Amino acid sequence: MAVEGVVSFRISHESGGNGAAPKQFTLAQGEDKAIRIGRAPGNDILVEHRGVSQYHAEVRLAEGGSEPRLCIRDLSMNGTGLKRPGSETPSSCPKNTDDALPDGAVILVPMMLKADAQRAWLRVQILEGEEAAAAAAAKPPAPAKAPRSAAPAAPRKEARRRRAGAGAGAGEAAATTRPRRTRRRHASDSWSSCSRPGR
């Protein structure tokens, strides 16, 4: 790999992609980021077939270990298949578990097909050398996360005080601006022509 702690890879539709162009991605260790595959428009890889979940699977870096390695995590109802290099038959990925994703593997989405449904075959190619360096250089830097304690405390206290109506002046002001409570009318309270006094 060209850059330490970074994996650059390409996902291309082998079939069932309706002519979609291959896409390149870069993931870095320590980032909480995943490449999402599914039917919803916000996914990184869009697969618009029956039987594909809105958010079907994720490609991410495996947690732990000194070397970063790709894995796939199935999130779906109909399963995600994985055809490893050198294997003729695909195997089903365990649900909500990271499964190793080797270079040249093919992801099958969905694994279980319903009647008249199609399946997408997505080939994963890990980029090496100059291609990997170019992909890593093109990756935008991750936004710096502000620590939770960095938020100013004064606006939060002020909002809490407003909500609770705390303080001598705030409580009185809240009491004077509250709408007056009125007695709810009942059926017996209604006036009719026969029950008015003086008739």
From TrEMBL:
<protein>
    <recommendedName>
        <fullName>FHA domain-containing protein</fullName>
    </recommendedName>
</protein>
<feature type="region of interest" description="Disordered">
    <location>
        <begin position="77"/>
        <end position="98"/>
    </location>
</feature>
<feature type="domain" description="FHA">
    <location>
        <begin position="35"/>
        <end position="80"/>
    </location>
</feature>
<feature type="compositionally biased region" description="Low complexity">
    <location>
        <begin position="137"/>
        <end position="154"/>
    </location>
</feature>
<dbReference type="Pfam" id="PF00498">
    <property type="entry name" value="FHA"/>
</dbReference>
<feature type="compositionally biased region" description="Polar residues">
    <location>
        <begin position="189"/>
        <end position="199"/>
    </location>
</feature>
<feature type="region of interest" description="Disordered">
    <location>
        <begin position="137"/>
        <end position="199"/>
    </location>
</feature>
<dbReference type="InterPro" id="IPR008984">
    <property type="entry name" value="SMAD_FHA_dom_sf"/>
</dbReference>
<dbReference type="InterPro" id="IPR000253">
    <property type="entry name" value="FHA_dom"/>
</dbReference>
